[in-house]
Fold each of these.
Amino acid sequence: MAADKHSPGGAALTDLVLEVFRLNGRLLSAGDKLVAEAGLTSARWQVLGAIHYASEPQTVSWLARSMGLTRQAVQRIVNDLVGEGLIALKTNPAHQRAHLVTLTRNGHAAYALADRRQTPWINALSKGLDRGEIERALVLLSTIRSQLESPNDGE
């Protein structure tokens, strides 16, 4: 097969990736509108969510890996959120320079407000969609992400 010709699977996956890019843009835009009342953006909401769902306080590097983002991008948002009093940095007994990130009382409140806004929005968005198809799409996207996280980086 020529290097410049997609296989049928490669062509289909390219179409899916392009659609995911378009969807991501729409989700970020909708998310910004959804959480504006909480004083958040989609990016800040995503970081607060990663902190909220972590089983214990984590470092910026861990949060970035769990979100599939660079440490620098997450660090910038963390710095902003610390400045706004939504998160705090705690001493990490395992590493002097890599602080643990935690939500403050205001951070919990902002996240809870965003969550209350998201629930009716996502319920409305899911109307008319088949739950089984959603679950199959989740498995597919998770599998693709896992392949990208493999040592070969999906190659």
Amino acid sequence: MISLIIPVLNEEENIKNLHGEIFKILDSLKENYEVIYIDDGSTDNSLPLLKEEELKNKKIRIFSFRRSRGKSEALTLGFKKAKGDIIITLDADLQDDPKAIPQMIEILKKGYDCVCGWRKDRKDKPLTIYSSKFFNWVSGKFWRVEVHDFNCGLKVYTKEAAKSLTLYGGMHRFIPLLLQNEGFKLTELPINHQKRKFGKSKYGVSKIFKDLPDMFTILFLSTYSERPSHFFSAVGGIFSLVGFIFLLYLSIMHWFYNQRIGTRPLWSVGVLFVLIGLQTIFTGFLADLMINIYHERREEKDFDNKIKYHN
């Protein structure tokens, strides 16, 4: 079975065209399928239009948030509700041409866990194109993920890969990285990218400033989530070292040059940096302790479940 998940936010002008495109393609596959619409708190006529289509077609399932919660949570809900062994995601604006879906499914069946769309020739505003290329280049180099387009809405997953994802905030932009970190096998396929015909893009200039904090969040989660003390110790060590250098300099000035240092601002700054460094290091120890306790309790629970199962 195939599950197609489509997040929708204020796309009333695209709904009818969207139906015509996707059902023509899915019918051609000659496999059982379902189409899951996740309405992300639309304030236009999108939800009533979707409900009208649901009455006409039993293959449509609709889930709706009372308010907009973001694309990440919409996708997560779709992954949880999907029944298919192959799960596809597609944006409702039809910029990513769904005609690539059959070919992506064929590639997936060759042993991959996720096939990502690659908008090789994007039809967006220059600022959007260049900021996206920079983001993809940095992400690819930083995490060594061999994917040119992290945030393309058209992706095809195995059931195991899709349901392993729990997304929130801006994490949908890093799906290839999250899957690679879990050991899933990825590839990509260039797809036809089209100009938006109706409605407005949900991403403006602010997208650039949102990507950077999300990038640091993913860096921490992907690298230090199991060993946070390494991160906090490095940061705390830098602060402590800088503070120690300030205090050492002032001590030399006091003992060898008989200068008064008690009223110097550098003294306060040095003490502050040392305290911040020590506090940051101990925060890492506490974070490690909490993670160890969490894993111990989970292992005990799993062990108890196994005992009950075998008995």
